[in-house]
Amino acid sequence: MIDEMSSSRTDAPCGWQILNDPRRNLGGAFTDQEREEHGLVGLFPDAVESMDTQLARARMQCAEQSSDLAKYVFLSALQDRQERLFYALLRSDFERYMPIVYTPTVGEACQKFGHILRRPKGMYLSLRQKGRLAQVLRNWPIEDVRFIVVTDGERILGLGDQGVCGMGIPVGKLALYTACAGVPPEVTLPIALDLGTNNQAFLADPLYPGLRQPRVDGEAMAEFIDEFVDAVQEVFPNCCIQFEDFTNKNAIPLLERYRDRVCCFNDDIQGTASVAVAGLFGACRLSQMAMKDQRLLFLGAGNAGVGIADLFVKHLTSQGVPVAEAVAQCWFVNSRGLVHAGMPRLPEYLTRYAHSLAGLTIPPSAPSGADSPMTQLLDCVETIRPTGIIGVSTVASAFSEPVIRAMARLNTRPIVFPLSNPTSKSECTADEAIRWSDGRAIIATGSPFPELSFGGKRFVPGQGNNVYIYPAVGLAIYATKAQRVTDEMFLCAAESLARETSEADLSVGLIYPPIESIHETSVRVAIEVARFVFDAGLAREDRPSDIAAFVRAHVYDPAF
User: Looking at 71, 97, 121, 173, which residue is catalytic?
Assistant: First the structure.
């Protein structure tokens, strides 16, 4: 192979290099003049094709794939081969392609990552490179990286430890940064931190591509991530780090450790919180209730649930509600039952939501556990009498028919948000929530569900997908060169997103803007977040006279 390469035409035009560069490869769209100038004559069939023609071919080829996973592999290969066409395809039909590029299909892609791996994307930083991570990062060919999505693969969606196979998540997230909000793909970098894996099936799989050793934790993990964060500041000083799919025990401490030191955020905490709170704004419009009158019961007491509660409380306090009163409106149920002030072994981040049980009437028949007087969700609903239940548990079917019917009995318009994904982990389906509430539930789901009909009325389930939030926040950060990312930025994004939902959307139960309009929605949300960044003095760019035009000037357009 070396001898073959050494005998190639070193003085040949650059056409071959262009064809192998996905950012410059336009396929058959090169004009006759461009083919002459760049040495492309003879490397394509004769026809000069428009993007529409190439999109039609790509749609057909994708549709012919035998499964969603095969479609994922096809789209991944298209991204490797012809980047602009890939993003134009996604943008042409978000409803069709987003579930393939990201949830729910990306979950299966991570589980089978070692088997479907073709061309590696992004960077893999392993424990073997400890002590020289900055040097390794310099191997990346782009000097001005502005966004890194990084995971250690330990808690991928609801699937558990996927090791380096969790790389599908950063890759998918960053693809949607570009497709939805127009963050230029060349400034993004997906990274997997290889700290080993405790997934025994992977360790026994000869095709697993990562370190074959048990996962490190504790001080060893902290030292490695410290070095990684410092290396990013050294090599990519304008970069924002998005922490993704770290376990509950690590995610919140990592965010607290770095949020005031570097430009970073955690989408599982802050992005999930923002999209859920935006959904609550929409639910309030439908139910004609105020946010301050909501009482929320969370099934799942990890990063996502606490993040939603924290942002909900932040909104209430911004409206003049005392902190103690706002906190008291949020209750949690974890694997041991109703969280309360006397429950032992609670993580510090949950303690402020561990309320006294004084004044509660606990049903005598309610099953109790060693740590909680109520272990069943239905009993908790009957006792707490929430206006909304929010599922972030990854426990499939946890919102049972008796639970939904109890919510419907207690509320004229019960709020039911089964936010866990992928679909196999959803607390209930959209159809179940509508049927069991007699068509009265206000729903947001973590995975996409088809529209349905009940009682002669059309319902369009809203997907409470973080994709409504993090790409828009990312575009604002990119345009302004924000120094830090704050919770207030995510609250601003939630409020802005909620304003994008029309009365026509609400009339069919949709509490988010339609997914087909997500590009323009994301840009408008980004403009409002950018305005907040400038107002808060967090921008490293000078404030422009026209912030909307300034943000739009930074939007990537895949057209050719």
Answer: 173
Residue 332 Rama label (left phi>0; alpha psi -120 to 50; beta): beta
Q: If you count them, how many residues does the chain have? A: 560
CA pseudo-torsion sign 225, 228, 234, 240: negative
- Residue 430 predicted with pLDDT over 50: yes
From the list 72, 87, 97, 102, the catalytic residue is 102
Torsion angle of alpha carbons 491, 495, 497, 501, nearest 10°? 150
HSE-up of residue 74 (Cα within 13 Å, Cβ side): 19
* pLDDT tens digits, one per residue of 166-221: 999 999 999 999 999 999 999 999 999 999 999 999 999 999 999 999 999 999 99
**Which pLDDT belongs to residue 14?**
84
Distances (CA, A) of 7 to 1, 21, 38, 460: 10, 22, 21, 61
Q: Which of 168, 148, 147, 141 is nearest to 156 (CA)?
A: 168
Cβ contact 519:176 at 8 Å: no
* Cα dihedral 466/469/474/475 (nearest 10): 140
pTM of the predicted structure, to 2 decimals: 0.93
Residue type, 397: S
Q: 53 with 16: CB under 8 angstroms?
A: no
Fill in the DSSP letter of residue 451.
-
Q: Ranked by mean pLDDT, which of 2-6, 117-121, 389-393 comes out on top?
A: 389-393
Architecture of domain 100-262: 3-Layer(aba) Sandwich (3.40)
Domain ranges (residues) in the chain: 1-49, 100-262, 468-552
CA–CA dist 36, 4 (Å, integer): 26
DSSP string across 499-555: HT--HHHHHTT--S--GGGHHHHHHHHHHHHHHHHHHTT--SSPPPS-HHHHHHTT-
Question: What is the crossing angle of helices 470-480 and 518-535, to 10°?
Answer: 50
Report the topology of domain 468-552. Rossmann fold (3.40.50)
Is 211 within 8 Å of 128 (Cβ atoms)? yes
Q: What is the mean pLDDT of residues 107-112?
A: 96
Catalytic residue list contains 470? no
Q: pLDDT above 90 covers what percent of the chain?
A: 93
Burial of residue 443 (CB within 10 Å: 0-12, 13-18, 19+) is buried
Asked whether the domain spanning 468-552 has the same topology as the one spanning 100-262, the reply is yes
314: annotated active-site residue: no
Residue 511: both structure tokens together: 């509490």
pLDDT, tens digit, 9 for 90 and up, residues 293-347? 999 999 999 989 999 999 999 999 999 999 999 999 999 999 999 999 999 999 9
- Give the single-character DSSP code of 269: I
Beta pairing class for 296-299 and 330-334: parallel
